[in-house]
What does this fold into?
Amino acid sequence: MTDYGANFGKTIKKLLDEKKYQTLKDVLVTMEPADVAAVFEDIEEERMPLLFRLLPKELAAETFAELDSDWQELLIRGFSDSELRELLGELYVDDAADLIEEMPANVVKRILAQADPQTRREINEILRYPENSAGSIMTTEYVSLRPDMTVAQAISRIRRTGVDKETIYTCYVTAERRLLGTVSVKDLLLATDDDAPVSAVMDPNVISVTTLTDQEEVAQMLSRYNFLALPVVDTDGRMVGIVTFDDAMDVIVEETTEDIEKMAGMLPSGKTYLHSSSLDLFRQRIPWLALLMVSATFTGMIITSFEHALAAQVALTAFIPMLMDTGGNSGSQASVTVIRALSLGELSFADMPRVLWKEIQTSVLCGTALAALCFGKIMLVDRLLLGNADITAPTAFTVCFTMALTVLIAKLVGCSLPMVAKRLGFDPAVMASPFITTVVDALSLLVYFTAANALLF
Amino acid sequence: MTDYGANFGKTIKKLLDEKKYQTLKDVLVTMEPADVAAVFEDIEEERMPLLFRLLPKELAAETFAELDSDWQELLIRGFSDSELRELLGELYVDDAADLIEEMPANVVKRILAQADPQTRREINEILRYPENSAGSIMTTEYVSLRPDMTVAQAISRIRRTGVDKETIYTCYVTAERRLLGTVSVKDLLLATDDDAPVSAVMDPNVISVTTLTDQEEVAQMLSRYNFLALPVVDTDGRMVGIVTFDDAMDVIVEETTEDIEKMAGMLPSGKTYLHSSSLDLFRQRIPWLALLMVSATFTGMIITSFEHALAAQVALTAFIPMLMDTGGNSGSQASVTVIRALSLGELSFADMPRVLWKEIQTSVLCGTALAALCFGKIMLVDRLLLGNADITAPTAFTVCFTMALTVLIAKLVGCSLPMVAKRLGFDPAVMASPFITTVVDALSLLVYFTAANALLF
It folds into this structure.
């Protein structure tokens, strides 16, 4: 995709250099808004306003909605008041609200001054809702029908008012703004009797969300039910807007990226990698690195307190990395699996006993297999092949025993911490690899040295 | 969501116990297929067929498509031939093809025997395509229009034939099966002239995929362009089917789960956590655990070869876990960020120099900050607070120097391995935390002991 934008950018630049504006226009109108936006973000800043003015109104608005906020700001600063008014007239209300959330205060002021009163009211409505709520991502432009309209009247209403609506395919049947049912254009078109009332063809079993429902839940519901849009009602039960599937797809991708970032011990950034400066990356990464480094003091203390054992048998040190890594890997396998299942809604806290039991069984299988493999490896490779005579069968046994127990501890810690975090209202994704590794490191070293003291000295 | 299904399950079970079949029916018809399926998977197996027979035809087929394959098989084995025929008549062709892929051979034979010749042909068409290709997830049921039809004729054709189509909202204008353009029902309904030919209202700039395009790419295109469906053409340029947005959402979620599993050092399973047995989990997890454990032999060898240094200053051992963990965490931050950007199509191999430069800058920032923090921590906590007089300023300097260099190495290895893997046609997700940790462990220990030899002895 990126490649496509970049390569196409060259053609566009050449046409711009040669001032072939008519050709440029002919080329741009054949493209999808997302691709035009990719080309715009690839050319020099000062040429973008010129290029933008070549686009027909509707494509211009759709392209604008796809641009990154830096480019949007650049364009708006170059717009005359009438250009800005025209753009706002074409933008969907939810895109306009997104825009306002991203712009600095003086730009926001200008935008609101140019928006017509109706749009301004709708934008403010959306901006009232907390970030990441259904209210904040909904659009107020949907088709509403009255229950007593006939099918023919409904179709003609859609034909008359549909042009500004984000989707016309699911229509909402309301009376005094209360949601009575939904009816799809498919149902209306395929209805056998054009004179039947809408209430007879509508589906009265409506699934809706409230303005305060978390956007991730909204996205999961849209994906679970394969809906094109979900209606949003306010706390008094009155319909105020809809969330469409394309916004839900974006939410799913964004929220997953956030989860992945948290699982890798980073603060979520909300910016794409190439748009992040190294200072952004530093800010995103240093908090967990610093915290985890400091918390490694405990592992250091454990090693220090067993110094005599290590001094007596230096060979023991050589196995520390293997034990720690196996523990870390086992733990992150369990934690990442559980975190993903939690965020897909496949698991809840009530499943904890089943999860623990599954992980205990899996640990016994993995631990036994690894311990056996490890014993063979130590005796064959480390002792025979590498000729390390310090390593005796009791040493190997100590290592392998620790290995098996570490796998068990790691899997139990790995699967339970995220579930407990979720239960306590924290984000389970934070309880992933880096954090679990630190906990498991300390526990596995304790097991190791205790076992060594008991078995070898 | 899970909770909802489970709680509702109790009501349904009670109604079943009391044989209140009419009430059950009244309740079930108000529910969405995905929720009915969740209830079914929650009740005892032997009662499911009874419950299934209470559903009206269409809801029954939609619920069936949402069920896990174990439950689908159970139902089919209980069906009479005529029940099976009826179900196949209602199922969308892509769901029928999915079903056949999951069933054992004898069940497949029965299904194909009961399908009508047209359906059988279409199913076989879909099954011809490789797994994870656009062809394998498409449906052949779409609305096609001729370019010379009028808008009014087009609408009446949709009304006549639309009932069996998976989506009617995007229609495909074809001549001799070649795709000329797309037209949405919105365009048709909002067209001002009912007698205009379809060719005048259609959009001739069609974005399509081929039957062999990877399903992940198809899903990303649908999400990028906010399309309801993408047309699929065969290698001769003839239109053969469409992929709809709801299937794309499922693909995005599945592929992300696979990526996450690989990043945590697991083989992707394709099963949900609670549906995986501990043997499944063992098979998924043991290969990487075993491989990484064996490869830790190298870190062991490095430690063994520097045994004299460690014996001379045992305090050095205490810092090994901290250095290894910080290296591992730094590396996985970089690798996970790059892997995610690659799989979202935000990065390509051509961006490698920019990525390396960004990571070098970030490493210098993170490395300096961590080294300074670490030096303070060692001198204050380890030396003063814990009274470890072995730890001198040169020791602290050695540790902090290693720390800074490890962060740099880890970030460079972390960001470049996934990009190189992608370039060579391997899956970048495999180059994540566990693998990078092993590589970085060995490199950081080498730096540590080399620095210690140079600075302390």
Chain A is about 65% helix and 5% strand. The longest helix of chain A spans residues 352-385. Chain A has three domains: 2-132, 144-244, 296-456. Chain A has a mean pLDDT of 87.
